[in-house]
Amino acid sequence: MVIGILIALQIDTWNKEREDQILKQSYFNSLIEDLSKDIDAIQNTIANQIEDSLRIAEHQKRLTKKDASLEDMLSLIVYDWDPRIGGLSSFNTNTVEALVNTGNINLIDSEIQKALTNLKRNQEQHISSYIPFVEFYRNSGNAAVSVPTKFGSINKGPIFEEMLNDVDKVAIAHKFNNSLTLKRQAYRISIYMLSGILTETEDLIGLIEAKIDSK
User: Fold this and answer.
1) Hey, where are the domains in the chain?
2) What is the DSSP letter of 106?
3) pLDDT < 50 positions in the chain
């Protein structure tokens, strides 16, 4: 009878281990899916921010020439300046949150747990550093708001020209210089931090895939 109980307990243990292993593999697959989405988003964000940073550098080069004028600056704002600022304000953390909330995080290897914790910390640091910078940029006042541009309903003709002639070009120059500087600095922070997060994310996927292959 004792032997029968021991066998039953052993079977229960095997079944539990098998169920845990199946659940663990499911979490691994979900983590890889979340992390892969993050990689795509990060790569696209970095590419767009680099492209916009190069445009900002061209604007700076154009406006710091010896023969540059306030008219050049105004023309740039009207026809070439894109005041929008892009970035990444969230990451795919659904699976990690589910692991923590259900207590199933203990199913995950300690090495992966540590990597997930470090990645989450750096993701949160990026959001807490970059987003306030973006808000400050948006709240600081954009030069394009004070100037009629190609995006407006009235973007040509004599009234448009009158509107351009009526603006305070020096005040707008100060505001535009501020916008260029803030946007450039925001992108520098974002690109630097996202590049590190991208490497961490890619390494974590490799670590998870190695665990899957070893089973």
Assistant:
1) 2-213
2) G
3) 6, 8-9, 11
